Amino acid sequence: MQQSSTSQCQNNRHELDNLEAPSSVKARSALQALTSAALVLPGLLMSSGHAAGTDRINFQYSRYQEGERNLFGVPQSLKPITADVLYGSGNFSLTDRTKFSFGYTQDTWSGATPIAISPLVANGNRPILSNTESGVVIVGASPIINSQILLDRELNPIRRDPQSGQLSGTDSRSVMVMSSASPETRRQANFGLSHEWNEAAINIGGGFSRERDYKSSYGNIGGRLDFNQKLTTVKFGGGYTHSDIGAILDHDASPYITKTAFSQQIISRGGSEILQGNRQDWAANVGLTQVLTKSALIDANIGYTHSSGFMENPYKVVSVIFIDPTALNTNQTTPIAGDLRALIEQRPDIRNQVAINTKYIQHISAFDAALHLGYRLSVDDWGINTHTFDASWVQPLGNDWTVTPRIRYYSQDAASFYRPYLFSQQTYRRNEFDSLGRQIWVDVNNPNIQYFRDSNFNLFDQSGNLVNEAFLNIQPKITSFDAGKLPDNFSSDHRLAGFGALSGGVVLSKILGKGVALEAGFEYYTRASSMQLGSGGGNSFADFDYYVANAALKLDMESTNPSLPTGNSSHTHQDSIRHYQHQFPPAGVMFGHMLNKPGDFMVGYRFMLGRSDGSMMHGAHKVSDQTVVDQGCSEAIPCRFTPAYMNMRMHMLDIMYAPTKWLNVMLMPTFMDMDMNLRRLAGAPPAAPGVHEHRGIAGHETGAVSDTYISSLIKLIDIPGHRVHMNLGLSAPTGKVDIELRRIAQVDGGLIHFGMQLGSGTWDFLPSLTYLGGRSRWSWGAQLSGVKRMEEKNKSGYRLGDIFQATTWGGFDLTRWLAASVRGAYTIQGAIHRDFDSFNAHIGPMDFPANYGGQFWDIGLGLNAVIPSGRFAGNRFGFEWIQPLRNDFNGFQLDRKGALSATWSYQF
Amino acid sequence: MLALITPLIKKNRYAFIKLILALSMVLSGCVNIAPWERGNLAKPQMELDPHPLQSELQSHNYSSREAAPSHKSSSGGGGCGCY
């Protein structure tokens, strides 16, 4: 009803427009044609960066998977890099001409990343050996970034057999030294506002990105002007980004890294060394889109970026091979010793980049397809010139399918300061001698006074007096290398090397009808130094490949009609809305709502945040650290660590469809991310050798796809004021249960704590029974639900406890669109059965199966809102805060601090 | 090359914008496509970016693996991409 009146308004407006046209029939028909053409051309000539287009909501999940790097025969035990990315965005009209857009991205990555490049003979990726039943096997690689190597007189590395010590000729190959990382999560939120005029638009936007070691905030402004009946468009934009870097240096690697160039920027906090810096990026671009013919257009723009500040990658080091110049200057032919050290890379503080983009789009009438051809050139003052060529073919097929194959070639030159590794003809560190050839000793607390020793190791001052060193801290006087003899800038980040890359992929999209579209994409990317334009490469040790697969759900809200009840003779519109509201339980209740009409769809998003914090609990009582140490783990292994806090966030997509009035089917992919920090328990015993030791201030993070729910809801009773339905659901084990902590100093991190794994790992049965009632402004309901694990154990060897929950609530309509609710819930969950069947460090109570589950009594306070009319009609929001009243934990657990549930749904 | 281009653009920033505007005038002068002839241009496959979700993702991956400025550099966006 609301819809039809809106379109009526639009029709009236068009008629008014037409009335204002000249009275000549010919002119009037031309104007009509123009108006109608303008209506079918809403988004034409507008870049996607503008918050334009129809009102829509998008969800996308993608997975990035890198292939293994070439380690020249060292077995790969480190998993290659993977990244799981969750993306959601929305675009809403505030008025006919003003739109608001927002986006949220979350990515969690883990895997092996190169930290340095070194000559292969340095054995940077040292195999880790392990005794097994079948003998000694290589279980992995440990990064070695400091070592001694031999060089010939031309400074070519010489290979030496590790067993016999025999030299076997030069070996000039290089290799990337790999280090593994525990999972880390980045979150980014952005928003935008745009306003349209008939032949112009302006937009502003901003956002921020947060990860543990890197925080950015940014803002931008842009606009466009249309000329010549929209055949020509000029676009312009500018942006500013400020980033703060606080890189926590790897606790294990740090003693082997030379950081003198950054000593002013490194602070120490909580046992961790943090390298701090900040950078600014200014960007501006101007562009032009021109329609060339009835079926071709061209787009060109030029962009300039000026960056300043800390542009290093704080985790990348450069291998510098120090050579004693006296060894070089002799006329010998014997090999020279090279002292290989790792220095944090040093990049220039300023970077200017210019990029020119061109794109040509041609409609191919024979296939009704579009050919997109692009070329991009960028140059910068680091010496990196790049060329990108890409082509795609957008082919609509029948039945609303579109397939788009795409190919891309990219080539870049190396940065002027890129080196796989460096030589420096000086000693890294040497003892000082005076002019008489005597070694100089100094007091650490007073380094300006020099001392000497005689052949009996007695200490003398400069006047030759014997000195009592009992009260002094005497050390040899050492001089470090002269940084002035090194280049100002050096990096061996393979992204600054010269290389070429070829990638190809395909995008498949399908409009399901009712404004719902699905999109899936796949891309394979291969990088090879030999593919660099105009160069033979020479960096083939850095070659790698990756693939990205993604799936997206797009909801176009303008082509959907919200399935809101309309008023009829027996009900007023208000009553209908109220009845509609009464069909929704509080936000924290799952599987509590059913669609009424066959053919109805519902798309929803559900967010849950749970926090544990505060005291350690045993049963219902607080316990001291000493009790946790003594009793929280096992008799053989006392606890050493305990959680300081933990946050769990769950993102769920609800897709619901009603094939019949009494049956609904539901698919819920979920995405989960967690972070936890540990603290050392007071009174904890010292670390056992070979066991994962938690050090520093960094916590642990995990995040990726969690389990997927598939459900069928069956309506049992539906009489005025009372509804009962049953849910029979399955949970598919799509979440990982074998996430590992990184290996540190040849000590396996092992599987991360049970509570940080992302799924149950088992097929689970989820039954529930829901009752909903309502009368005038009051509503009420109850639900019994359970989770029954249907397998004995998951692939890591354990099984989560079963869950049973009983909950009941009452609600009151504050207004016709807003209702408040109070809910009570009782939950009982069993402890974990069995245990990990592979290594877990067992450092605290969270690593023991008995310390999971319990009985919980919670109260929930909620609000439910539905937008009854207007352009957002049919959007429904729910919030509920769940406050624990009483907890009775199994074993020893961190206290629960409450949970938030938020839902959005749209039914059509 | 940049040494050539950057000062050129810096010095002649306004001239450059004028050039683009002039170019657009000239180009637009050559073209005259009546609204009812724009059927093909209005098709979704002819949009400048027919798959914005895909291009955003691709751009993010390329910028974490390549040294060229991000396609979205003017709209900002953060992240270390330190891996």
Give the tags.
heterodimer, A: 908 residues, mainly beta, Porin, 4 domains, twelve-stranded antiparallel barrel, 5 helices, 6% helix, disordered N terminus, B: 83 residues, mainly alpha, 3 helices
Describe this structure as you would to a colleague.
The complex is a heterodimer of chains A (908) and B (83). Chain A contains five helices and 49 strands. Chain A has 908 residues and is mainly beta. Chain A folds into four domains: 40 residues, no CATH class; 355 residues, Porin, CATH 2.40.160; 52 residues, no CATH class; 335 residues, Beta Barrel (Porin), CATH 2.40.160.40. Chain A has a 16-stranded antiparallel β-barrel with strand order 1-2-3-9-10-11-12-15-16-19-20-21-22-30-31-32. Chain A is globular, with a radius of gyration of 33 Å. With 83 residues, chain B is an all-alpha fold. The longest helix of chain B is centred in the N-terminal third of the chain and has 18 residues. Chain B is flat, with a radius of gyration of 18 Å. The two termini of chain B are 30 Å apart. The chains are: A mainly beta (908), B mainly alpha (83). Chains A and B meet through helix 2, strand 1, strand 2, strand 3 and strand 9 of A and helix 1, helix 2 and helix 3 of B.
CA-atom Rg of chain B in angstroms: 18 Å
The quaternary structure here is heterodimer
CATH topology of the largest domain in chain A: Porin
Helix content of chain A: under 10%
State the secondary-structure class of chain B.
mainly alpha
Strand content of chain A: over 45%
Number of strands of chain A: 49
Tell the overall outline of chain A: globular
Biggest chain-to-chain interface with counts: A-B, 126 and 62 residues
Distance between the termini of chain A: 14 Å
Please state the CA-atom Rg of chain A, rounded to the nearest Å.
Answer: 33 Å
Quote the beta fraction of chain B. under 5%
Mean pLDDT of chain B: 72
Q: Total number of helical segments of chain B?
A: 3
Contiguous low-pLDDT stretches of chain B (5 residues minimum) are 73-77
Portion in helices of chain B: 40-55%
